[in-house]
Amino acid sequence: MKIRHRIVRLIAAPLLFAAAVTAQAETLRVAIGTQDTTINCATGGLLIRELHLLDKYLPHTGKYANVTYDVQWKDFTSGAPLTNEMVAGKLDFGAMADFPGSLNGAAFQKAGRRSIFITVLEGSIDGSGNGIVVPVNSPAHSIADLKGKTISVPFASTAHGMLLRAIKAQGWDPDTDVNIITQAPEVAGSALKAGKIDAHADFVPFADLFPYRGIARKIYDGAQSHAPTFHGALVDAAYAQKYPEVVVAYLRAAIEANRLIAQDPEKYSLLIEKVTGIEAPVDYLYHGPLGLQTRDLTWKPEYRQAVATAIDTLKLLRKTDVNLDANTFVDDRYIREAFKESGLDYDAALKNHARQPLVANDALTGKPIRDFNDVAQIWLPNEAHVRNYANVEEAFAALAKLGPSTGKARAVYVHDHDGGLKLLAPDAWYVRDAHGNITAFLQKAGADAYAQHTSGSVVDYAAAVKTTAASQAVAAR
């Protein structure tokens, strides 16, 4: 009983699916399409592959007793080419978001076949993960400032759906009040730096990666749209029917990947960075405790609704004319069995809407952190784990005390006071009140309103850290 692995990046030789292969045959293909740079797919692809988790669960008894597995991996930067290869019979599994996933189901149906959505991997019932950014020096601070402007977005993506909802919420006509153009993330990054576009809407992780790299500012998070979004895994329905035990094995591997990254998100964020080049602090922003999205392998009603919304929106965009039924397209039988075989309670997980919890002591006082509204974190380059602080002023005071030997922080994280959204600290706005308390906000409008209510002052990140350091120096005298 052998397992062979093939890892293919972007271009692979044609591999035709042989319909005559059976579970009793010598070789059984398990071909998985991943999206490594779409980091919330990690537990359904990158981590399974890099940690060889699938090998642990592939069946080797009964009808699989004499099988040699030919495990093939192929990485993609978006869902559309992955779907093309699934429909062509070159891949059995694929990981992608709700919008491209729905196009996957429509493409299969148009070809007279079926694919099924078998699990969620990571998502947000509010819509976080998608976002809108503007050039660093842009005068825009919210989507309300983008009327009449040019906004780029990868067409037919989950970010496209978010953008259309955000425009509708402003009461604008997307055909006349803004100029929406299609642009892939790698093109948009250059366009933002050159000031060739006014704004860019994108999916995980680009609305946070671009600000982290200093080429854009985030002015809108998908959570403001309150429209669920997720990335998940699909499989060719005929393959799943023929080899259900293999599908369950893949899902058990995803469950283990989820468990491992929950136990040590910093370690595996560094692994994701090593493989993809997406910086670990951005990976941790999603995968760490209280992250932007929740790693969730259950089909919550909100995620089922996201599929239905994606199907409807894609039809409105004239991207498909297929009547795909979300109720049959989503199939939870395999993930339920994987939970059962892993000794987990699927129904209990289905009811749990909480983010990955933060269980930590304050790095300054040593006391357990109980209130998470204003918690802050610092990740230093010479430390394996982030430092946790009960509030922003504590964290900024700690930053001021860091010496040259410590080095510049990998990242500093704060939380939006209005919605609890985890933020990269340099991208937030802050209100400093008369007592020296500092409160973080995603949007300047929120900070302005809070400052007026508390008689505080609105400052940016640099000013917030500087004034905290000055206060600490005065207090030490």
TrEMBL record:
Residues 27-279 form the Solute-binding protein family 3/N-terminal domain. It comes from the Bacteria. The lineage of its organism: Bacteria, Pseudomonadati, Pseudomonadota, Betaproteobacteria, Burkholderiales. Belongs to the bacterial solute-binding protein SsuA/TauA family. InterPro entries: Solute-binding_3/MltF_N. Residues 1-25 form the signal peptide. This is Putative aliphatic sulfonates-binding protein. Part of a binding-protein-dependent transport system for aliphatic sulfonates. Putative binding protein. PANTHER family: ABC TRANSPORTER SUBSTRATE-BINDING PROTEIN (PTHR30024:SF45), ALIPHATIC SULFONATES-BINDING PROTEIN-RELATED (PTHR30024). Keywords: Signal, Transport.
